[in-house]
Amino acid sequence: MNGEHMQIGEVATRTELSLRTIRHYEETGLVIPSARSQGGFRLYTEADVARLMVIRRMKPLGFSLDEMRDLLDATDRLDSDKDLPAGEREALLERVRGFAKAAQQRVADLRTQLARAEEFAGTLRERLAGTPAR
Q: Taking the C-alpha atoms of 29, 35, 40 and 44 in order, what is their torsion angle to the nearest 10 degrees?
């Protein structure tokens, strides 16, 4: 094995994803190992790790596997060496812009939820601080 390939354990450490999660993403077609060792072990590249990081960042924002697949397809096509017709390129960029807008909205929604949760936790702390010990 050369230095450009990593086994799944190293990828799991670098991405902070479990082996099971990485295998699940493989089963669903979101990420496919770039190679296999002679012993059949999955081998990943930096590009595979970057792809997993996109997936990892989308998950807490509530994107579905299909949405992840759609974004990855768009970015794969944009990043390919093929010359895309202008109309197709613009359509792909518009898809990516849609995901960017959705991500921004979901982050804003999470900030609102976090503010409410912090307010609730503060209310409980104040209540406990004002309760006499028994």
A: -80
Look up tokens 């307010």; give the residue: 119
Rounded Cα–Cα distance for residues 100 and 89 (Å): 17
- Per residue in 63-89, pLDDT (tens digit) is 999 999 999 999 999 998 788 999 999
The answer to whether residues 64 and 51 touch, using CB atoms and an 8 Å cutoff, is no
Beta-carbon count within 10 A of 99 CB? 18
CA-nearest of 1, 3, 30 to 15 is 30
How is residue 47 written in tokens? 């590009």
Q: What is the CA angle 122-124-129, rounded to 5?
A: 95
Show the DSSP H helices in the chain as ranges: 8-15, 19-27, 46-58, 65-79, 86-129
Query: Checking phi first, is residue 62 left (phi over 0); if not, alpha (psi -120 to 50) or beta?
Result: left
pTM: 0.83
